[in-house]
Amino acid sequence: MSTYFTINVCVANIYGEGSFGSPVVTQALLGESCTVLGETEKWLRIKQSDDYEGWINKFFGVVSDAPYDSNRSCNDLGGVIYSDAHSKYPLRKITFGAWLNSTKSDQGWSVTLPDGKKGWTESALRKNAIDLNRNAAVNLAKQFLGIQYLWGGKSPKGFDCSGLIQTIFNAMDVVLPRDSEDQSRYFINHKINREEALPGDLHFFGTEKSVTHVAMEIGHGQYLHCQGWVKEESFDKNQPNYNKKLQGSYLHTVSMGKCLDQNH
C-alpha cells in the first residue's frame, strides 16, 4: 500500500538531498499528493505525478494512506484562504495550480485543507482543465509575463524556464517532464523547422552536449520564456526584443501539435 505526502503550504521546495543546504531541484504546490519513497527523522523522499523525485521537509505537509481529495484548482495567479468569510486574517496563501477540496458557497468557496482545517476563499477555482489548444496555451503563458526567474520554481511566485512550460501544459491536463532536457527528449520525434513553428510549439537552446533552456513560440518568430523574468523576445534581429545571445545557443524546435491540435 502506498503512502502519500500532501503539500499543506502555498509552495514547497523539494531538495536534492534531505537538507536545507542541498540544492532545490523543483517545487510542489498546495494540495499536491506525492508518493512517499523513503524517510529520515525530518525528511521524506517523494515522487511527484511527473515522476520527479526529491526530498522534502515533513513540516511542509501531511502524510496519509490516500491522496488528498481535491476537486478544483486555483485559476488566479495568487489568492488567500481565510478561516471564514468574515475573517481578515489569512489561514493559507494559494497560487495558480494549487489543488483544493472545495464547495461553492454564496460568498465564494468553502475549503478543506489537506490537514483538515476549514477555510474560505473568493479566489477563482476551476473544476476542469483549460481548453487544450494553441490560443489557450499562449493566452495562459502571457498571464505570467513579468514573473521573476527562480531556480526550481514552478509557480507565479517564481519560475525557471522548464517550470513555466510544465505549468502551462499541466493546466491543460498535459503532463510534461520537469526539465528542459527531458522535455526536448520527450518530443524528439516531432522536430520541425523553426520557421514552421506555430503558437504553442517549443524552442530548445543549449550546447552540443545538453539542452539548457526552453521557450514557447507565440507567433511570427516571437517567443515567450523565463530568463530573469517571464518575457517576450524575438528571433528576428530587426526587432527591438531580439535576443542575440540566446539565438546563438538555439538547438531545435518541436511541434506541440500532438497535444494542441487534437481538438481540431
Mean pLDDT: 96
Put simply, the count of helices is 5
Uncertain parts: none
CATH topology name of the largest domain: endopeptidase fold (from Nostoc punctiforme)
Which range best describes the helical content: under 10%, 10-25%, 25-40%, 40-55%, 55-70% or over 70%? Answer: 10-25%
Q: Would you give an account of this structure?
A:
The protein has 264 residues and is mainly β. It has 3 domains: 61 residues, SH3 Domains (SH3 type barrels), CATH 2.30.30; 55 residues, SH3 type barrels (Roll), CATH 2.30.30; 127 residues, endopeptidase fold (from Nostoc punctiforme), CATH 3.90.1720.10. Helix content is 13%, strand content 40%. The chain has 5 helices and 22 strands. The strands form 6 sheets. The chain has a 6-stranded antiparallel beta sheet. Strand 19 and strand 20 form a beta hairpin. The N and C termini lie far apart (41 Å). The mean pLDDT is 96.
Short description:
The chain contains five helices and 22 strands. The chain is mainly beta and 264 residues long. Strands 17-22-18-19-20-21 form a six-stranded antiparallel beta sheet.
Task: Provide the descriptors you would attach to this structure in a database record.
5 helices, 22 strands, six-stranded antiparallel sheet, single chain, endopeptidase fold (from Nostoc punctiforme), SH3 type barrels, 3 domains, five-stranded antiparallel sheet, mainly beta, 264 residues
